[in-house]
Structure formats: structure tokens, C-alpha cells
Amino acid sequence: MMAYHIPVLAKESIDAMSIQQDGVYVDATFGGGGHSRLILNELGSNGQLLGFDQDEDALANVPDDGRFTFVHHNFRYLKQFLRLHAHRKVDGILADLGVSSHQLDVAERGFSFRYDAELDMRMNQQQEVNAASILNSYSADDLQLLFSQYGEVRNAKTLALRIVEQRSHQSLNTIGQFLGVVEPIIRGHRSRYLAQVFQALRIEVNDEMGALEDFLKQAMEVLKPGGRLVVISYHSIEDRMIKNFLKAGNIKGVADKDFYGNINRPFKIISKKAILPTDEEIKNNPRARSAKLRIGEKK
Predict the structure, then answer these.
(1) Cα–Cα distance, 108 to 186 (Å, whole number)
(2) 3-class SS at 168?
(3) Rounded distance between C-alpha atoms, residue 96 and residue 28, angstroms
(4) Contacts of 237 (CB under 8 A, 6+ apart)
(5) Top-tier CATH class for 10-101+208-298
(6) What's the CA angle centered on 202, arms 196 and 207, to 5 degrees?
(7) Where are the domains positioned within the chain?
(8) Does the structure show a pLDDT above 50 at 3?
(9) DSSP string, 203-270
(10) What integer pLDDT is reported at residue 115 of this predicted model?
(11) How far apart are CA 143 and CA 147, in angstroms?
(12) What 3-state class would DSSP assign to 178?
């Protein structure tokens, strides 16, 4: 198996799953297979692990292990494909919401501003919408909203207006063309600014927030009582959604009360505060820097 992705918060996330040797588990974001390998190490001969990933490149990392089933789909279809594989309930679910190192490092995928390539950013290469189609079709207001909301870009309105102005002369199809639009208005540190802009585009291209909400709702349904939901996030919006969901069973964090006013809390929160990577892990794997791990146990 090609180890192209160093698993983030590896020990912490595997410990958090409280793995039983004969249990059924899900790695909802298989990627390079780093977390899956660690889960398989903890499982006995009767244990089962299902790995979800919509990315074609993940197929190269599937382990030759009879206990493992690869599901080549987005984790937003969790319940549907668990049922297809005769698993209505599972003992634990792990999701690492980060983009894999491999995706960032393969130039033609268009995830990184370090390479000139097509403006792509699709996790699922079969879908039609890519970064170029968004930049060339969204209104200035919609572009401003996505850069502000998903990238926390300080001058999102200026950026949106520049994009609309530029595309009126020439469509934006490559990273090089897009950087030509962005460079003159960069605020603050160049790499940080570009990372925020590219992150916002990637989230929109892949409907990451919509997929996350779908996944969380289904994870709550398919977990057995006592089963663990373990999620690693890298963005403040994602982290807030997960925190709210574990607290209240919905992404807005609105308390669900019964007739008598008692709050329905579907999860027991295992760690009150998010678990963060150590300084040593960040030093060895800088992409772990913004990671936050949250754990809930189904009641």
C-alpha cells in the first residue's frame, strides 16, 4: 500500500474509537489508508472495517485484507452503502476531514497554488463542477460569500469583483491565470492568504459542508449505543458543526427538548475540549497544525 498520507492525531483517534476486536468499524475518509491500517491492527480475525472514499487515487491504497471493504463513494452516502454491505449498525466511525498530502502534491489535481495546472479541485473526478466553472459562473455576491464564509478572506468583496472583471475579458481556466488576478490584492502573508482562497474554492467545489451534515446525521443513525464517532477537522466552520452536532444532534446546536423540557442529548461527549496535536507532531507533520479531534459516544 502506498503511504502517501501521514495520519493526523493517529494514536489519539484510534484510542478514541475504543476498538473491540470483533467489531464493525468505518473509516469514512480512507485516503492514503493510514488510519485504516491502524484500525486493522487493532481488529481480530472476525472484525470488519469499511473504508469510504470518492477519490480514484485512493483505490491504489486498498489493503489486501479480507476484513476490509472499500466503498468508492462519498461518506455522505454512509447509510446507503452500509446497508448494501449488510451492516445496518456499526461500533465506531472515524472521519479525517483534511485534504490528503497526496492530493495537494499532485499538480494536475489543482488543489495547490504551488503548481500551475487546470483549476480543478474535484475530489470526485466524475462530477462536472470544478473550480474553473465556479470562478467563471458565480455572481460577484456569491463569490464574495464563499470566500468570506469558507476562507475568511478579509477582502473577499475586492477579490470577487476582480474575478468578475477579469473573466469578462478572458475565462479563468488555470491556476496561473487565477494567481494573476489574486496576486495584486493579497493582504498579509502571501501563502496564508492563498491557502484561505484555495480552501474556500475547494470547499465549494466539493460541497464539503453539505456532505459533512449528511454524514453526521447518518453516523448518528447507524452507530450502536456505546459506539464512538471520532472526527478530525481543520476548519472553524467544520469544527463548530461537529461540536454542535455532538452536543445537540444537529449542526446548529439547537437543543431538542421533550414535552417536559428535558434536553435530548444523543451523544455523551468524551472530551469536553477538542484534542489538539502535540508540538512534536506539528513539527513532524506541519499539515496537522490546525487539526481538532472531537469524540462522541452514542447513548
Answers:
(1) 24
(2) coil
(3) 8
(4) 149, 150, 209
(5) alpha beta
(6) 125
(7) 10-101+208-298, 125-205
(8) no
(9) HHHTTHHHHHHHHHHHHHHHEEEEEEEEEEE-SHHHHHHHHHHHHHSSTT---EE-TTS-EE--EEES
(10) 79
(11) 6
(12) helix
Asked if residue 227 lies in contact with residue 209, where contact means CB atoms within 8 angstroms, the answer is no
Residues 6 or more apart from 163 whose CB is under 8 A from it? 135, 140, 143, 172, 181
181-197 residue pLDDT tens: 999 999 999 999 999 99
How many beta carbons lie within 10 A of that of residue 64, not counting itself? 6
- The alpha carbon dihedral of 186, 190, 196, 198 has a sign of positive
Q: Phi-psi bin for 226: left (phi > 0), alpha (psi -120 to 50), beta?
A: left
The pairing of beta strand 48-52 with beta strand 223-233: unpaired
Q: Which of 284, 234, 278, 293 is nearest to 100 (CA)?
A: 234
* DSSP notation for 109-157: G---TTS--BS---SSTT-S--HHHHHHHS-HHHHHHHHHHHH--TTHH
Residue 93 is placed in which grid cell? 466511525
CB 227 within 8 A of CB 91: yes
Location of C-alpha cell 459533512: 212
Q: Is pLDDT above 50 for 2?
A: no
Predicted confidence (pLDDT) per residue in 93-117, tens digit? 999 998 755 555 555 565 677 778 8
d(CA 25, CA 39) in angstroms, rounded, equals 8
Query: pTM, whole model, 2 decimals?
Result: 0.90
Cell of 168: 469578462
Give me 201's grid cell.
474554492
Superfamily of chain region 125-205: Putative methyltransferase TM0872, insert domain (1.10.150.170)
